[in-house]
Amino acid sequence: MSGGNTATVIVNNPGTYTVTGTASNGCTAAVTSTVYPDVNAPVISLTSNTETITCSNSSPTISAGTGTMTNVSYSWSPASGISSGANSSTATFTAAGTYIIGSNQFK
After folding, report:
1. What are 43-79's pLDDT values in tens digits?
2. How many CB atoms lie within 10 A of CB 51?
3. Domain residues of the chain, as ranges?
């Protein structure tokens, strides 16, 4: 939370918060508000479910997307066999295998 002693408060975590205002004459007023977590998990779509490593295509690339969701981080695993993009939406592979992509939306 930031702005705790100002007219504008920014809350980063779910929870119940109470804001109290005090006038110059000493009178106070308070309001309580509950901030709920965003429970919509990102939906990942892939440009391809399968790519083949061949002599002519030794480093295939697969891209993931979450549509219009913003502030999404990605992580491909296992990271071995990925030459670039292990923590981005597009990864380039140099080894055959099964890979898992995870995503997380942050604010």
Report:
1. 777 777 777 778 888 888 888 887 777 778 888 998 8
2. 16
3. 1-37, 45-105
